[in-house]
Amino acid sequence: MFKEFKEFIMRGSVIDLAIGIIIGAAFKQIVDSFVTDILMPPISLLTGGIDFVNKFVILKEGTPTGPYTTIADAKAAGAVTLNYGAFIMHVIMFLIVAFVVFLLIRQVNNMRKQKEEAAKQNLPSREEELLTEIRDLMKSQVKG
């Protein structure tokens, strides 16, 4: 069983998936920082200083009762809140990630299309051209 597990883990697709997850987690941190630290401050400035992070609606008061200035204050008092500001930020983050994935997939599709067009024209690939040059060089050295 351990041998089968080792073979499963060492397959290329599993390793590629693991690498993708690690890179995705790092990319998420970059997007979080971009939205929180770069995108939202100007939006807040344009909207008259609205801090989206602390936009919430109180569903149930805590003790002591509000008004609460931040979500942390409301949570500390035991209030139940609907945090729509955080939701807005997460939607923006999702849209950014979705757009980047779209660009990536679009580029991969373009590369595939170019490769398919080259194959349809029966043109040798760059690798085939290089191998042909190497073969010809080796032939000329043997003859010379």
Describe the structure.
With 144 residues, the chain is mainly alpha-helical. It has a domain at 1-48. Helices cover 73% and strands 5% of the residues. The protein contains five helices and two strands. It has helices at 2-10, 12-46, 71-76, 84-120, 126-143, and strands spanning 57-60, 80-82. It has a two-stranded antiparallel ribbon with strand order 1-2. The chain starts with a helix and ends with a helix.
Q: What are the salient characteristics of this protein?
A:
single chain, 73% helix, 5% strand, 144 residues, mainly alpha, two-stranded antiparallel sheet
Main beta sheet, described? 2 strands, antiparallel
- Helical residue percent? over 70%
Low-pLDDT runs of 5+ residues are none
Global geometry: elongated
Counted beta strands: 2
Structural class by secondary-structure content: mainly alpha
Which series of helices and strands comes N to C? HHEHEHH
